[in-house]
Design a protein that fits this description.
With 70 residues, the chain is of the alpha+beta class. 21% of the residues lie in helices and 36% in strands. A 4-stranded antiparallel sheet has the order 1-2-3-4, with helices on one face.
């Protein structure tokens, strides 16, 4: 498993216990979409407090397309 895959897996496991860990950022223009860094990658996810659900929307390297079409 590559270093990137390990970091993403660890970040996802951490999100299960804390949907808004230190370093997470709420994305402007969205009610409940956040991002967290995992090395060179970004994990973009939505938090639904009512359903107690976290849905990963995208895992991608940061570039001009990362946040497009969310």
């Amino acid at each position: 498993m590559t270093g990137d895959a390990r970091r993403v897996r660890e970040a996802l496991r951490n999100l299960v216990g804390d949907a808004r860990p230190t370093g997470s950022v709420k994305l402007a223009g969205f009610a409940s979409v956040w991002r967290v860094r995992a090395g060179r990658l970004r994990i973009i996810y939505e938090v639904d407090e009512g359903e107690r659900r976290l849905m990963v929307l995208r895992v991608a390297r940061r570039d001009e397309r990362t946040y497009r079409d969310l």
